[in-house]
Design brief:
The structure is a single chain. The protein is about 25% helix and about 30% strand. The chain is of the alpha+beta class. It has a domain of about 110 residues: Aminopeptidase, CATH 3.40.630. An 8-stranded mixed β-sheet has the order 1-2-5-6-7-8-10-9, sandwiched between helices. It has a two-stranded antiparallel ribbon with strand order 3-4. A hairpin with a 4-residue loop joins strand 9 and strand 10.
Length: about 170
């Protein structure tokens, strides 16, 4: 299985967005959506430290964390990536988008690109995502991307998954 780190950090593009590496100069625009281990950054220093931890996780082969760049401005408007390792050819996909870009199709495009990359280049068999019952926008997004609910977890969390064979049977 081909897993990170890659010789060249993978960049993937679609019509409206590209998934690319987050650079230090991008961080100041992402403070409000910078998280690591469920903790949100409140300062530029914290967000930069979180990016450093994420980059270390990438170098250790446990994550691929992209910035979602608007193709018109190249500005990072959100993040999308695989977290928590890749045991059993499975990856957990997470994402967050700045509020002013929500509801415009950016996340659907980003998640689609990340899922396709996971199945094709990382040879994953399963992509998982975790959200809460209250996050109706995330639930609708996951269902639109062919995810199915597979487990109710602690703290009102629900786990969804999509398998490569499920997507192939939809075509």
């Amino acid at each position: 299985m081909k897993l990170p780190p890659y010789y060249i950090f993978p960049t993937i593009s679609a019509d409206k967005i590209s998934l690319r590496q987050i650079l230090k100069e991008d961080v100041e625009h992402l403070i409000e959506i910078s998280f690591y281990d469920g903790i949100q950054a409140t300062t530029l220093k914290q967000a930069t430290e979180m990016l450093d931890k994420i980059n270390k996780d990438y170098l250790n082969g446990n994550t691929v964390h992209w910035g979602i760049a608007d193709n018109i401005t190249n500005r990072i408007i959100g993040t999308c990536g695989y977290y928590r390792g890749f045991e059993n050819r499975s990856g957990e996909l997470g994402c967050v988008l700045l509020p002013q870009y929500q509801g415009k199709g950016f996340m659907t495009s980003a998640m689609s690109l990340a899922i396709a990359f996971g199945f094709k280049h990382m040879r994953l068999k399963r992509v998982a995502a975790v959200t809460t019952n209250q996050n109706l926008k995330a639930v609708k997004l996951l269902e639109r991307l062919s995810f199915i609910k597979v487990a109710e977890l602690e703290g009102d969390l629900i786990e969804y998954e999509v398998r490569q064979e499920d997507l192939e049977s939809d075509q």
